[in-house]
């Protein structure tokens, strides 16, 4: 998102549908769960209103800012699954149905980590160009473990009946057990498989892997800019160079060349075996079992 947002005339919005970051998303998603699971033409007025606001630039008004104050410093640690306490309900009600900015920007780059199961719904509802960014499941698991990501700790994907009926039951995939690594691997597998199905139905969507973008970043991003109709600038190339430095956690700076196979030094043999076993139950084609075999020694 930050690289694409260097294109002149673009506005970038970081995870505006994440209820940990924007109070308006709490109201819009409280009946849909953390990962809304919607099919095209399905009615979801509050969620549609949220995306109308997002695609108009996602600028917060005074109601959203006041809602943040009400939620307090612990807002980022909450898990919003529809069961809201009084404080959360009041804040989300105050921030509901945000107003679109005027004038609407020419191009909005919106990053979401929760729209995987509704991307076709969003695409049919608005004039957008979906870009699906996949990442090697070993790298996803290692990152979730490293930062303690909330999505690796809650059970929203396996507990929602619409997710189970639309994907899990149809695929015949067993639910995960109690092991945390198995649970995270299962959630990663479901999201990858769901995105692969959506991509198969929508060949006009853009798709890249994180590993592709980390290999000769300037050249690969130039091609992506062309495919998205974005203007390349000197600032874009400079941004890529400046951010190709060491970093960790939620910081976005990384040495790109070190990321492609970083899972091999970050996951132990037991974790990797669990990931391979769980992913084998999902209809995933982007990565095979051989892509999860260790070829480099651990640190």
Residue fraction in strands: 5-15%
Tell me the structural class.
Answer: mainly alpha
The rounded distance between the terminal residues' Cα atoms is: 31 Å
Number of helices: 14
Number of domains: 2
Give the H and E element order. Answer: EHHHHEHEHHHHEHHHHH
Low-confidence stretches: none
Helix percentage range: 40-55%
Total number of beta strands: 4
Q: What average pLDDT do the residues reach?
A: 89
Categorize the overall geometry: globular
**What integer value in Å does the Rg equal?**
19 Å
Can you characterise this structure?
The protein has 299 residues and is mostly helical. It folds into 2 domains: 1-121, no CATH class; 129-214 and 259-299, no CATH class. It has 14 helices and 4 strands. The chain has helices at 23-29, 45-54, 62-71, 86-95, 119-125, 137-147, 156-159, 161-171, 180-201, 210-213, 217-228, 234-242, 263-266, 269-279, and strands at 10-14, 107-111, 131-134, 206-209. A two-stranded parallel sheet has the order 1-2. The chain starts with 9 loop residues before the first strand and ends in a 20-residue tail after the last helix. The model has no long low-confidence stretch (mean pLDDT 89).
